[in-house]
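Thread: Newbie trying to understand structure tokens

Hi all, I'm a second-year student working on a class project, and my supervisor (Dr. K.) asked me to get a predicted structure for one chain before our next meeting. I've only ever worked with sequences, so writing a 3D structure as a token string is new to me. If someone could post the tokens and maybe explain what I'm looking at, I'd be very grateful. Here's the chain:
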Amino acid sequence: MEALGITTLFLVVFISCLVFSAVWKSRMKKEKLPPGPTPLPIIGNILQLKTNYLDQAIHKLSQKYGPVFTMYVGTERVVVLNGYDAVKEALIDRADEFSARGKLPLADKINKGKGIIFSNGERWKQLRRFALTTLRNFGMGKKSIEERIQDETQYVVEYLQNTKEKPFDPTFMLSCSTSNVICSIVFGKRYEYNDKRFLSIMASMNENFEVFSSPWGQLYNIFPSLMDFIPGPHHKVASNSNKNAEFVLEEAKEHRATLDPSSPRDYIDCFYIKMDQEEQNDASEFTIENLIFCVLDLFTAGTETTSTTLRYGLLILQKYPEIEAKVQEEIDQVIGGARKPCMADRGKMPYTDAVIHEIQRFISLVPLSVPHAVLKDTVFREYVIPKGTTIYPVLTSVLCDTKEFRNPTKFDPQHFLHEDGSFRKSDYFMPFSAGKRICAGEGLARMELFLFLTTILQNFKLKPLTDPKDIDISPQMSSIGSLPRSYQLCVVPR
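---
Reply by user tm_fold:
Sure, no problem. This is what the structure looks like when written as tokens:
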């Protein structure tokens, strides 16, 4: 009897899946959605996705279903864009239609549609426009911010000198240094690398980035209602974010108490001035809540992305000491050892520029971009994508396109060099995404990557703790973010 019951249950499940599959395929055909793997009830296509290397799993599906296909993350419908042509057509050629922010439940739980990165509609337009204008007014892309970065690089040199050639983990040094650049714009000041409160904020940001990219973060984004009741590190995201919000609120209160509208010191001051100007507007987006989330967006994005790229870059250069040596040779020829590197040097240093571009290409820091969505029912190629559908533009598929990069899975600076050694630009270089949602701090990040890396290599030689050939430069995980494996190194003064 027991065996009969199990058989009956199996048949019921099997028949239910067949019926579901038939209904789903009929619906797909009727709605003219892009093709894709048949999802299972509730869990969608989770069995076909490796949560540790999501971009690789999606690439395999693309080989079967094409550059535009539909999959289900739990019950959430997602249209995937794979390859340069599809991503460019959507994000650049049809930027307005694909400019909405898609769903990311773990982020939505915290941000609730506030701030810059995860907002939509008029709120997003106003807050992003204000941020871009304010960042430019405080020097982004100008000589003044270059000088701030140069000043911060000297604190990095001092920190590295104090390691006395002993092993250290560069994570927090890089987080603090890159964060101080955005802090100078947002808060109007920098923090010491041994400031316990500042280090605590760096730790919570770093932990959140890791959780977002981990299987726990992926599971939350697939089953948010269920994961709210399951213990795990995904619950730390909310507590870490609350701690960071309290840090921002304290800074904001200090700014409010000392605000001089005729002489704004930083982004927070400018936001308060805008708040006061719109205090009679009940629909104003310039509220204290949006101030906190906008500052957190700028603070986090201006810290984690650049510091993780630098951390990954230092690991890669340890594996390839011959590349490090060629960069240092170029630094010696163009800059020498007596002065600080400056942005005017970059145009005379094609090999160094190529190495930095190749670091960004190779690591593909945000493999799927931050999810987009379509603003309306959208005819895309021969398909119809319903309004509000989440879009995954797979940036890894652009950065690793074999039509543009001959050895996409290998670290090779020649990808960005002509045969004569001059720098080679590429339309496929999209580490900051593209279109209306391109990273607002792209210019600042490019400046920081060049100035921090050249300053470190101008003053120090990297000394790995293991044989370079044994260094693993594959990502620890690659889903929302692509993270390097933990490591320590020594630096030796040159």
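A couple of things are worth pointing out once you decode it. The longest helix spans residues 288-319. The two ends are 79 Å apart (CA to CA). Feel free to ask follow-ups in this thread.
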